[in-house]
């Protein structure tokens, strides 16, 4: 979603995205003309007339679980977004009995939240596990 019109989105898809992603993006692009939704999410800058790049992870209950806001010159990392979605799904499916440490990816070690983990994370997880 951006403040750009549907015509700008069509041009962007036809002349840019379709050259990067076969068939264009596999999801709808929405127009937030006037920045109403961007204002609600705190990403619209009325002085500049632009929306900052915002990414919001909203669970099935409508609760924002994670978000990231970047100024326009910096792009987002789709791989990190997908990793975080997988982590939130794992935590939700486990009903909170599992937590994902920094750098977690599917198949990597999870943590078991609880009083026994407090002050003992270092026994189960080390910083080198955050990297591939």
TrEMBL record:
Pfam families: 1-cysPrx_C (PF10417), AhpC-TSA (PF00578). It comes from the Bacteria. Keywords: Antioxidant, Oxidoreductase, Peroxidase, Redox-active center. Its EC number is 1.11.1.26. It catalyses: a hydroperoxide + NADH + H(+) = an alcohol + NAD(+) + H2O. Residues 2-65 form the Alkyl hydroperoxide reductase subunit C/ Thiol specific antioxidant domain. Residues 87-113 form the Peroxiredoxin C-terminal domain. It is an enzyme of class 1 (oxidoreductase). GO terms for cellular component: cytosol. GO terms for biological process: cell redox homeostasis; cellular response to stress; hydrogen peroxide catabolic process; response to oxidative stress. The keyword Cell inner membrane does not apply. GO terms for molecular function: NADH-dependent peroxiredoxin activity; thioredoxin peroxidase activity. Belongs to the peroxiredoxin family. AhpC/Prx1 subfamily. PANTHER family: ALKYL HYDROPEROXIDE REDUCTASE C, THIOREDOXIN PEROXIDASE. Homodimer; disulfide-linked, upon oxidation. 5 homodimers assemble to form a ring-like decamer. This is Alkyl hydroperoxide reductase C. It comes from Desulfamplus magnetovallimortis.
